[in-house]
Design brief:
Layout: H1 7-12, H2 17-27, E1 39-43, E2 48-54, E3 63-68, E4 71-76, E5 97-102, E6 107-115, E7 118-125, H3 141-153
Antiparallel strand pairs: 1-2, 2-7, 3-4, 4-5, 6-7
Amino acid sequence: MRNFDFTPLYRATVGFDHLADLMDRALSADIGQPTYPPYNIEKLGEDAYRISIAVAGFGADDLTVELRDGALIVAARKAAEEPARNYLHRGIATRAFERRFALAEHVRVKGASHADGMLHIDLLREVPEALKPRRIEIGRSDTLEAKAVETIEV
């Protein structure tokens, strides 16, 4: 098991406590994690992303996309068993799956579409105005004292 000391990070940052949890989750993930179904994560723009998952053999009714506790959960289950067939080779897997993606703060799901055996989930990062960078005016100390005295007198 790996142990990392995140104390130096805490000296230079404020409010990034969840970063240690995220790193711990990433480092302790099993190497034998499932690789089915294959997927891509694309960056479409400054704040736009797309997750594309290969879901050959599944219809839109067999798929569910859900947002729960800051995680995007994609699951698929065949509604009914297909009739018995005699396959000579079966390379298209239609087994049930559940895939989880941890979403960063302020990332919302814009929409999902299913076409040509691919499930596309569009994501958008929307940072609130209160969290965007803003310039703070630096006043002179004599001006600040005068304002403080004015508020006390009133």
